[in-house]
Amino acid sequence: MSTLIKNGAIITAADTFQADILIEQGQIALLGQSLEVDGAEIVDASGKLVMPGGVDPHTHLELPFFRTVSSDDFYTGHRAAAFGGTTCHIDFANQRKGESLHEALAKWRQLAEGKAALDYATHVSITDLRPSVLDEIPSLLDEGVTSLKLFLSYKDMYMLPDGDILKVMAVAAELGMMVLVHAENGDVVDMLTRQFVAAGKLSPEYHALSHPAWSETEATLRAIALSSVADVPLYVVHITCAGAVDQVSYGRARGLPVMGETCPQYLFFTADDLRRPDGAKFICSPPVRTKADNAYLWEALADGRIQAVGTDHCPFLFDGTKPLMYDGEEYRSPGKESGGGDFSKTPNGMHGIEDRMLMLWTYGVGAGRFSANRFVALTATNPAKIFGLYPRKGTIAVGSDADLAIWNPEARKTVSAATHHTRADHNVYEGMALVGLPEKVFVRGELLVDGENWYGRRGNGRFLHRQPNAPVL
Ligand code: URP
Ligand code: ZN
Ligand code: ZN
Questions:
Q1: Where are the domains of the chain?
Q2: Which residue has the least CA distance to atom 8 on ligand 1?
Q3: Would you say the CB of residue 352 lies under 6 angstroms from ligand 1?
Q4: Is the pLDDT of residue 116 over 90?
Q5: Does residue 82 have a pLDDT over 90?
Q6: Ligand 1 test: best mutation among 211, 348, 351, most atoms within 8 Å of CB?
Q7: Ramachandran angles phi, psi of 252, nearest 5°
Q8: What confidence score (pLDDT) does residue 433 get?
Q9: Ligand 1 centre and the CA of 59: distance in Å?
Q10: Which CATH fold topology does 3-52+395-454 show?
């Protein structure tokens, strides 16, 4: 069965051109003008934009965190992603203390098994470095895992000392793996958090005050310096502030293979949002910062100082004492209220897997901040390239998987938790206007989203084995 998408304007990271797309056996078989194919199902994309489905390089589905679990699983998260134009993502298998990396990976794959509707891959996070753990890193490549995440923060939970970070980086360098870092100074965060808690300063704004921008800036430079010693490519996740952007630029200006990611929440929100009555919704780490940081990040996305936009999708209900009706079923899970009004106990994280492309299209491309091609680069092509998924994912080319989103540039909608697909009882972008929306979304040529209709199927998503030595952008 073949599908022919006709008359659309194709947008890739490099080009915009008018062409038809022939899809056969889940892949793009042909691109050309006025294609005619007997028996093909025709999809008319006149007046529409055809873009690669988004690749979200940073998500946490069903993450056990702060005595609860993030509220989207591999089915609900995939459904939400697809309605937002994202067709593929890379999650994190987080090692628990005492666990081997392969145990962490197996547990994580079990979570996705039978639920995934999109194709997906994983990074592995190392949080407990023992000699046996170091020894098992090479065999992760056999499992298709080519990227390792390290934390310079979350003391007594995820954080590794610099010496361990350097050891992992050295092994990763030998193997052509990529290292990702959560860059905040864990000692600074720990000390300030304890001080605020001891002083009874518990409200959400103290979350931001206990995670200062300088702690992120310092940790970003430290990670870059360590990666330079180990000679390993580095990807700094969820950059929030001008200082951290500048450290990435400093490294890149010296020829180091350093790349950076930001997330939508750091483009739209500030510490003022933490002072709202519902401020707990905005607690994430690192925290949302200032208007000046928002503006700096938008500029860095446009001019290439930042290479990718992920989401750090890690949603929690705002009020987990009430059941949420999702897809006709009641869903219950402790949420932000489980912190009891204490920022240090409130689950850290925000949603974004559905919102990323929608918000970046309207407020990035629509607002004239960058081109549609740059949008595709930031949300699909660059993440696919950086993490070894390209050209299978992240572009429109003969031989690529037919992961496509047909966007209607005229369609309008207002963001609302009442209509979103994320399994959360709130949407931090509530009330914001969207102009330009994905109307039809395909994964390997199969139609998953058509307007408000969902045709995705549990268990249809595939785990993606990746190759090491991905390019540095
Ligand atoms: O607050 C956040 N970011 N939660 C998810 C875990 C992480 O640090 O990425
Ligand atoms: Zn993080
Ligand atoms: Zn994260």
A1: 3-52+395-454, 54-386
A2: 285
A3: no
A4: yes
A5: yes
A6: 348
A7: -65, -35
A8: 98
A9: 9
A10: Urease, subunit C; domain 1 (2.30.40)
Neighbours of 87 (CB within 10 A): 32
Percent of the chain scoring above 70 in pLDDT: 100
Nearest CA to ligand 1 atom 9: 312
Q: Does 220 sit in the ligand 1 pocket, CB within 6 Å?
A: no
Q: What is the mean pLDDT of the chain?
A: 98
Nearest alpha carbon, ligand 1 atom 3:
285
Q: Tell me the pLDDT tens digit for each residue of 378-400.
A: 999 999 999 999 999 999 999 99
Pocket lining: 181 vs ligand 1, CB cutoff 6 Å: no
Residue-wise burial string across 160-175, b where 16 or more C-beta atoms lie within 10 A, e elsewhere: beeebbbbbbebbbee
Task: Give the contacts of 106 (CB within 8 A, at least 6 positions apart).
Answer: none
Q: What's the longest Cα–Cα distance across the chain?
A: 74
For the entire predicted model, the pTM comes to 0.98
What is the structure's pLDDT at 125? Answer: 98
Task: Round the CA-based radius of gyration of the chain to a whole number and report it.
Answer: 21
C-beta neighbour count of 414 within 10 angstroms: 12
Instruction: Give yes or no for residue 77 having a pLDDT over 90.
Output: yes
Q: Which CATH class is domain 54-386?
A: alpha beta
Given a cut of 90, is residue 1 above it in pLDDT? Answer: no
Angle of CA points 216, 218, 220, to nearest 5°: 65
Mutate to test the pocket of ligand 1, among 158, 240, 284 (most ligand atoms within 8 A of CB): 284
Nearest ligand 1 atom, CA 154: 8
Q: Does residue 159's CB lie within 6 angstroms of at least one atom of ligand 1?
A: no
Domains 3-52+395-454 and 54-386 share a fold: no
